[in-house]
Amino acid sequence: xxxxxxxxxxxxxxxxxxxxxxxxxxxxxxxxxxxxxxxxxxxxxxxxxxxxxxxxxxxxxxxxxxxxxxxxxxxxxxxxxxxxxxxxxxxxxxxxxxxxxxxxxxxxxxxxxxxxxxxxxxxxxxxxxxxxxxxxxxxxxxxxxxxxxxxxxxxxxxxxxxxxxxxxxxxxxxxxxxxxxxxxxxxxxxxxxxxxxxxxxxxxxxxxxxxxxxxxxxxxxxxxxxxxxxxxxxxxxxxxxxxxxxxxxxxxxxxxxxxxxxxxxxxxxxx
Length: 271
Description:
The chain has helices spanning 4-16, 30-39, 48-54, 65-78, 95-107, 126-139, 162-175, 189-198, 215-220, 231-249, 262-268; strands at residues 22-24, 26-27, 44-46, 83-86, 112-115, 118-119, 122-123, 146-150, 180-182, 203-206, 225-227. By secondary structure, the chain is an alpha/beta fold. β6 and β7 form a beta hairpin.
């Protein structure tokens, strides 16, 4: 059962979607979530890519649902702000499987989630994809959970007109109960502007993937929600790789320039 505190967090998170636009950064463990919360973000998202990499496996379904939900629970427990989960394609093809995953995410403390409409680079049939969104909505009713329906018409390399297909799918997903529409892979500013005008719900675009457009510009184009996907995790793991190479090649410690001190980092994790 969803607690009153969880419902309040869901309401606060949903309210962000009607403001001037906001960035929701993606964490991959409790520590990264805690740092992002302390930086001042009003909500935190998870990243399936970052969680997979932190577990030593590739993104894209290599991590089982139970393991992903275990990570989600630790992230929720580490912060006081709302947490929205990257549930990939719902860890199952059927609407029933999607409903079970969403219910488990609610039980783990999430107040929202992304749900993809593709698997293995192929879009689901629209009617089937819409049934999956409706099942997710039934598992987490309006007011208790922010459902972000992702469509991969751009990201999956749809053979036809990705703009028209995105709008077509977004319209159906909103009718099925989605609160927000997530469109990864779109990069051209004019296409983003047109999508913001045509999609009948707040638009979520990921920065740092196909698009290098900064958040302020995306807001000016009509985007309501900007996420980062695995970008922060990529940056962090890139530093790990650079540090390792430096130690192997020269034995120097230049990678520590600008690093938070041990004592300061300890203070950031004190309760």
